Amino acid sequence: MINIDQTPIYTCNNYGINNFAVDENMLAVKTTPYTNCRTNIENFEKLEQIPQNNFSKKLDDLTKQKNNFAQEINVDKTNQENEIVFDFDQNLIDVFEVNIKQNVQTKFVIKYMSSKNFLHSATIKINAEQNAKLDLIVLCDTQSVSSNFLSLQTNCDTNSQVYLHLIDFGADLVAHNIKSNLVGDNVKFDFDAIYFGKNKDRLNLNYQIEIAGKECDAKMNVLGILDNYSQKNIVTTINFLKGSKKSAGEENEYAIMLSDKAKSKSSPILLCTEDDVDGKHSSSCGKFDEDLLFYVKSRGITEADAKKLLVKAKLNKIIGQIESAKVKEDIYRQIDKLFD
User: Fold this and answer.
1) Are 222 and 252 in contact (CB under 8 A)?
2) Using N-to-C axis directions, what is the helix angle for 303-319 and 290-297, rounded to 10°?
């Protein structure tokens, strides 16, 4: 077995959040070159140096040895929206690096889709240079996939603004390792995530923000739905490093429990080696408010439609931040499917 996303934080060990492992045989896959990438980007370049996959050495070796899509994207002009769609019917191990050049403003949508039982592992590195502004949406619609690994790292330079939205509709096994490095001063970083756990899905989510610059502002909001026998482990961390004076960081996570059989483990962590910073964190889970559910049903709405309405209202805190109408439609469609 291979341990995934282990952290030395005592709380994670104490509550069993580190007890997430995958069968090593799962990684014994064959890959062939992947060519079915739909995109409006013209300036793909061959990626010469593969960035690190942050899950484990075994997964890092898999990424370096068996990747079948490795590209670099350099964005040096302000544009409206870039889209990359992977609709895969084979094992997909994709790697790419996106460099947002100085003073450039841009939007990206990266979408993973599959209706077949394959392994997917993505390693993405985002570099936002000084004064760059990036709005990035990563959407995983891979519910039939056996395993979906996503390792994403962002490096944010002085005065940059990065808005990251991650939506994962679930799979048999889901693992995220999202690490954001605020290396410059006066960085604005917002991270929103929505996850869905259904059937017997297993989800392991590790979200980290490290703040090294002065007067930075970082926010993390995570909302999820757990149904049936699904299980979720999540660690959210904001780390104020030496030199991060007058920076602020806030992390919030909430899980909506639709089933008594579903399990949710959470560990919100704040670390600090600097004074004069402002850090906040929260984590909670709960069922529907029965009084509110009764009130909605009393208006002639079925219980399924009432639950659907309440879930959409809860998730709209994050969905409302997404500008892409297509992505919003996808999220609402998945919520409808969950209750229909």
Assistant:
1) yes
2) 120
CA distance 173 to 146: 6
Q: DSSP 3-state assignment of 339?
A: helix
Handedness of CA 115, 116, 119, 125 (dihedral sign): negative
Tell me the mean pLDDT in the region 45-73: 92
The domains of the chain are located at 2-287, 289-340
pLDDT at 13: 86
Separation CA 212–CA 245 (nearest Å): 9
Report the b/e string of 291-306 with b at 16+ CB within 10 A. eebeebeeeeeeeeeb
Contact 105, 130 (CB under 8 A): no
pLDDT at 85: 94
Q: Which residue has the higher pLDDT, 311 or 130?
A: 130
Crossing angle for the helix pair 303-319 and 325-339, nearest 10 degrees? 150
Q: Which of these, 1, 286, 333, lies nearest to 167 by C-alpha position?
A: 333
DSSP summary character for residue 316: H
Q: List pLDDT tens digits, range 224-268.
A: 999 999 999 999 999 999 999 999 999 999 999 999 999 999 999
